[in-house]
Amino acid sequence: MQILVFGNKYKLKFIDSVKSLFFKLKHRGANILFDKEFAKEIQDSGLLDISEFDVFDNNFSGDIAISLGGDGTLLTTANRIGNRQIPILGINLGRLGFLTDVQAHELDNLDDIIFNKKYKVDDRMVLCAEIVHNAQCTTNGLELKRKIHNAQSAQKFSTTEFSLNEIAVLKQDLSSMISIDVTLNDEPLHTYQADGLLVSTPTGSTAYSLSVGGPIMMPETNNLIIAPVASHSLNVRPLIIPDNWKIDLKISSRSHSYLASIDGRSITMPDTATISISKADYTVRIIRLEGHSFLNTLKTKLMWGADIRVEC
């Protein structure tokens, strides 16, 4: 069994709590490989001797991937894995953690769970965003920066990005809203006047979309959510559409730019750029331990049914 380990360098203080898992897996015959950049951070910290394990860079394959961190780390892991169909097991070293299924108290027998496959694998929908622009632009996202930098001389350039949670367009300046023309299957829907707009998957319904008033959807639901961020019109509400529809976004801004965010990977775009969103032709495979369920996660993480009153 080949196990890939991805992680968040800002969670290195938690390595002590999980390093015994790696030695247990290795003792049982697993080949443990750490992401090269993450491995360097661990080695430099002195918390674990990485020389006892292998490392990998961009060309990799494996039977399972372990993501160490919060939901943001798992989103980064999912982006790295892409369409390789490697199941991802999230170990929660963050705060809320809807995607990271394993908690700290469940680490003791995790090696047995992995080897005996005492888990289920959920296939999660992925969004595909084709970003087309007719002018040069700058970017904050590292991978997107590389792609766009290589095409700086082009008058027209397109890039395709993938998202597990959501794709957002947001205003950049502090004062003025942006206008977002939304077209569904080539039919105009509405021009949103707002601070931004989200297109969210069911997986992302408990993320940014939830914070702007969007509904929670079961992961198996074949729908998408379109939700404005701080809409200027109070009667404009989140909209649920089928996941096989195509969504086209055209943005206008007084600053002639806007921010496109794909699972937190941010790009500063000129408002000449358009975004076409559709369902990707692959899914991301997320591991869920036996006895765990999305409904239980909702009740636990959102404290449904908890009595938070304080007795005097």
Summed up:
The protein is α+β, with helices and mostly antiparallel strands and 312 residues long.
List the helices and strands and how they pair.
Blueprint: E1 2-7, H1 15-27, E2 31-35, H2 36-45, E3 54-56, E4 64-69, H3 71-81, E5 88-92, H4 110-115, E6 119-124, E7 127-133, H5 142-149, E8 157-163, E9 166-170, E10 178-184, E11 187-194, E12 196-200, H6 208-211, E13 223-229, E14 239-242, E15 247-253, E16 257-262, E17 265-270, E18 274-279, E19 284-289, H7 294-301
Parallel strand pairs: 1-2, 1-4, 2-3, 4-5
Antiparallel strand pairs: 6-19, 7-8, 7-18, 9-12, 9-16, 10-11, 10-15, 12-13, 13-14, 15-18, 16-17
Rg over CA atoms, rounded to whole Å, is: 21 Å
State the shape: globular
The CATH architecture designation of the largest domain is: Sandwich
* Sheet/helix structural class: alpha+beta
Task: Report the strand count.
Answer: 19
Give the low-pLDDT segments: 136-142
The biggest sheet amounts to: 6 strands, antiparallel
| CATH fold-level assignment of the largest domain | Tumour Suppressor Smad4
Which oligomeric state applies?
A: single chain
- The CATH top-level class label of the largest domain: Mainly Beta
Strand share of the residues?
A: 35-45%
Query: What's the CATH H-level homologous superfamily of the largest domain?
Result: Probable inorganic polyphosphate/atp-NAD kinase, domain 2
The level of helicity is 10-25%
List SSEs in N-to-C order: EHEHEEHEHEEHEEEEEHEEEEEEEH
Task: Provide structural commentary.
This protein is α+β, with helices and mostly antiparallel strands and 312 residues long. 19% of the residues lie in helices and 36% in strands. The protein folds into two domains: 2-124 and 284-301, Probable inorganic polyphosphate/atp-NAD kinase, domain 1 (Rossmann fold, 3-Layer(aba) Sandwich); 127-279, Tumour Suppressor Smad4, CATH 2.60.200. It contains seven helices and 19 strands. The chain is globular. The relative contact order is 0.16.
